[in-house]
């Protein structure tokens, strides 16, 4: 593995006790949205009180007046690229980027080299030698080598620290294998995360199918490729009673299927990447590979449906699908370029700017999408909340602070990002993991 290329944002402070005073505590899991003081000891929340009423001493104090105190953000969908692809990202650099974006936990996808389908690789990713500055929760491969043919050992992977299973980057196409995966995971209380793409309909197609792809002379992926897998998986989840999570949902029809399934009581959740409620396939018009990702950017109607799903509660979580690539993998013809963009440093700023300020989404719902619900989906009951006894994973941010994203200053190794120069709101001031300040803005 290569060593980090720049400062990883290592811990700035590690007190045994930490006092956070006078911030606006927003904790959807507890139904709290009020000014509070917070006391942390040995990495746990030990006391919550009304602002200016907590009169105790601590090793360190943070004045949070004018700031939001939120449960630490959790990203359900991140590619940290190690082992095997450290020319794109390392666990150290990726988690440093996460910390600067307010994330205290990231869920690392298994499409590494080799694929994370064994307890040994799962433990290697979690080892302190990797230099992570936030919690890393590996999501292991659902099938051996993510080939979709034989289930990996879910029990052993769970004992090693895996919080879910998926073949992300590839779908599980065979009905029987997907059903076996759901049943096996359900017995262990785990969720199966599906990359919903019928690759028999998408191979060699770098963007979504529509007027823009026709005009650009690019072969397009039909929406049916996503919808078909989502509907199949919902039927299997309904049959087995297992938990299904749809990764990076992007089409109106797939979202409608999830909405209908939830109404019937099916145990299905879904996540949305910021780029799918910000951009459309029209952004590809200049063949800019910063807008090439999978699932691809969709139509305006799909984007409107995604926004509606965020606002009405159908969508459970915002996940970045942070996918770093080396310069040479993106600076080629659009058809040849790698799929994927980075996004850990901007997701909160995008959510505050576009959802809270532009669409009136309450901050409680924003935090629910970025923290409380992701914790619930991966069964991390002592995260995604700041109740007494919970891990002291905390994000402090100024919701009114306007700022411009400058990708040249990224802590990630990679700069394949369409957000460069974007005006955002909601600046992270402190990221705290287990009572330890790992980023200070």
Structural features:
single chain, 441 residues, alpha/beta, 8-stranded mixed beta sheet, 8-stranded parallel beta sheet, globular
Helix-and-strand structural type: alpha/beta
Q: Name the poorly predicted regions.
A: 1-11
* Main sheet: strands, sense, barrel: 8 strands, mixed
What would the principal axes of the Cα set say about the shape? globular
Terminal-residue CA separation: 29 Å
SSE topology sketch:
Layout: E1 17-27, E2 32-41, E3 44-50, E4 60-63, E5 68-71, E6 73-78, H1 91-100, E7 103-108, H2 119-126, E8 135-141, H3 154-160, E9 164-166, H4 175-187, E10 191-194, E11 207-208, H5 211-216, E12 220-221, H6 224-240, E13 244-246, H7 252-263, E14 268-272, H8 275-278, H9 300-312, E15 317-318, H10 327-330, H11 347-359, H12 363-377, E16 394-404, E17 423-433, E18 436-440
Parallel strand pairs: 1-4, 1-5, 6-7, 7-8, 8-9, 9-10, 10-13, 11-12, 13-14, 14-15
Antiparallel strand pairs: 1-2, 2-3, 5-16, 16-17, 17-18
């Amino acid at each position: 593995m290569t060593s980090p290329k720049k400062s990883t944002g290592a811990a700035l402070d590690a007190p045994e006790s930490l006092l956070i005073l006078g911030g606006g505590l927003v904790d959807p899991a507890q139904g709290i949205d009020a000014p509070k003081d917070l006391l942390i000891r040995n990495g746990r929340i030990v006391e919550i009180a009304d602002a200016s009423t907590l009169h105790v001493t601590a090793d360190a104090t943070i004045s949070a007046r004018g700031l939001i105190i939120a449960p630490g953000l959790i990203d359900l969908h991140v590619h940290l690229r190690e082992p095997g692809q450290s020319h794109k990202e390392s666990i150290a650099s990726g988690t440093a980027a996460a910390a600067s974006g307010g994330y205290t936990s990231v869920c690392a996808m298994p499409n590494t080299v080799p694929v994370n389908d064994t307890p040994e690789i799962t433990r290697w990713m979690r080892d302190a030698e990797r230099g992570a500055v936030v919690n890393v929760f590996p999501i292991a491969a659902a099938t051996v080598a993510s080939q979709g043919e034989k289930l990996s050992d879910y029990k052993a992977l769970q004992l090693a620290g895996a919080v879910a299973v998926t073949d992300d980057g590839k779908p599980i196409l065979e009905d029987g294998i997907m059903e076996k995966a759901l049943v096996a995971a359900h017995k262990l209380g785990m969720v199966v995360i599906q990359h919903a793409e019928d690759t028999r309909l998408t191979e060699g197609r770098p963007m979504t199918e529509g007027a823009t792809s026709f005009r650009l002379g690019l072969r397009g992926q039909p929406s049916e490729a996503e919808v078909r897998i989502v509907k199949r998986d919902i039927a299997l989840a309904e049959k087995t009673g297992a938990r299904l999570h749809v990764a990076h949902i992007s089409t109106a029809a797939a979202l409608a299927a999830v909405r209908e399934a939830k109404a019937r009581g099916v145990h299905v959740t879904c996540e949305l990447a910021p780029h799918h409620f910000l951009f459309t396939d029209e952004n590809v018009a200049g063949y800019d590979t910063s807008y090439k990702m999978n699932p691809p950017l969709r139509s305006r109607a799909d984007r409107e449906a995604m926004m509606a799903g965020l606002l009405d509660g159908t969508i459970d979580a915002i996940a970045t699908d942070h996918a770093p690539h080396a310069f040479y993998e993106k600076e080629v013809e659009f058809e040849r370029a790698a799929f994927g963009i980075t996004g850990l440093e901007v997701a909160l700023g995008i959510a505050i700017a576009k959802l809270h300020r532009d669409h009136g989404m309450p901050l409680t719902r924003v935090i629910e999408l970025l923290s409380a619900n992701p914790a619930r989906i991966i069964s991390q009951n002592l995260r995604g909340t700041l109740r007494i006894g919970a891990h002291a994973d905390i994000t402090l941010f100024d919701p009114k602070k306007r700022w411009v994203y400058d990708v040249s200053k990224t802590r990630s190794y990679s700069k394949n990002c369409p957000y460069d120069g974007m005006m955002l709101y909601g600046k992270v001031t402190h990221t705290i993991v287990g009572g330890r300040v790992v980023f200070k803005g």
